[in-house]
Amino acid sequence: MTTITKVKAILTAPARSALVVVKVETSDPGLYGVGCATFTQRPTLVAQAVEEYLAPLLTGRNVANIEDLWHLMYVNSYWRNGPVLNNAISGVDMALWDIKGKVAGMPVYDLLGGKSRQAAMVYRHADGKSPDEVLQAVQRYQEEGHLAVRCQMGGYGAQHADVAGGSAAQIRDGFPGAYYDPDSYARSVVDLFDHVRSGIGDDLFLLHDIHERLAPIDAIRLAKALEPHRLFFLEDPLPPEQIEWFRRLRDQTATPIAMGELHNHPLEWRTLVTEQLIDFIRTHISQIGGITPARKLAALCEAFGIRTAWHGPHDVSPVGHAANLHLDLAVHNFGIQEVIGFPEPLAEVFPGTPELRDGYLWANDDPGLGIDIDEELAARYPIELAPIEWTQARWPDGTVWTP
Fold it and tell me: 211 catalytic, yes or no?
């Protein structure tokens, strides 16, 4: 029997975002696995949970029993379904799948049933301070062969002053934060897609992320206004605290809806899935506990005609992207995969990083997740704690809103 001998967290920031990677070592010399546990806003808490709580719990246990170990970790703290422990569990869970693949001599996608497709279609991010800047970014991606692009003006929710009021909307001597005007934002989004569609035509899939920054009725109004542009999907129109509003949203618009990146708990997605209130599930795999719950969620969604679109921002490590990709290749109801890109330091620190080519993400055929971490190189990129970060969005009167 192969047992767990060590569980540790590795913190690194090769591309500025704080990443947390878990390494699980075993009693078989040279056999180990890696997993993503990145909660970039609270990385040290996750590392502490991994090393001070999960490591003693898991040491000496059979590395093959992934399902049993997942549930053991899940209930061991009694209080559960929070982002810190879910990410810690995820890091271990992905590492165990990585180990199982290495022992079997198979990629994880083969353990999950084999490939349903050769590669995963991705969407990229086109941001800009004006409609023309966004259009130029979209056209660059189109020239590179990409099939889908997310369009945002001024980053998340058009928060740039030139677009949505920004500092011009701020009360003098107001609270610190990033001010934005939701009404101006909503109008600017419609103008943005008018401009982009007029520049590229109808042959490219376009997406947009509201990022929960509108009141529910305003999100419904925007979803209806965007119908002529036939979005691939509209992301996070409402926060998870407003699940009941999704019924009204569904009744009022034909714009496809994606939701899930903030979900921690099965009750947050169960109604959305079983009542078919969304079209794409967008959960952050490490946020829900790793590959083990994600494969079950994908199967649930398949039964209700909902496709996957796992969260894939810059604060998912390449290990997390590899886990996303193995699920993308295996599940029948794959929709699309978000990818920001892999700047050079990332690919060096994480040998085996998935290949981004011709609008698709490609996996290698190595056993397990097919990716590793160079610990010596990772140590050259220490994290910088930034507890304030960008999560200080405010409406014009100073009211804190979702970031």
Answer: yes
Going by DSSP bridges, is the β-strand pair 393-394/178-179 parallel, antiparallel, or unpaired?
parallel
pLDDT at 172: 56
Domains 3-106 and 111-367 share a fold: no
Q: What's the DSSP call for residue 228?
A: G
Q: Which residue has the tokens 């998912």?
A: 316
In this model, does residue 87 exceed pLDDT 50? yes
Q: Is 111-367 a domain of CATH 2.60.40.1120?
A: no
Mean pLDDT of 57-64: 99
Architecture of domain 3-106: 2-Layer Sandwich (3.30)
Q: How large is the C-alpha radius of gyration of the chain?
A: 21
> Is-catalytic flag, 381?
no
Q: Of these residues, 125, 160, 208, 211, which one is catalytic? A: 211
Residue 344 confidence class, pLDDT cut points 50, 70, 90: confident
Question: What are the boundaries of each domain within the chain?
Answer: 3-106, 111-367
Q: What percent of the chain has a predicted confidence (pLDDT) above 70?
A: 94
